[in-house]
Please model this.
Amino acid sequence: MKQFFCMILVLLMTIVSAVPVYADIGATKENPQGG
Model:
């Protein structure tokens, strides 16, 4: 059960750390000037 929890935690951390990157790509696509 602990392994499963660790796996979920790692997956969650990966998603959370990837969110700003995807948001950045989306913002760049919307505004190529970069603000």
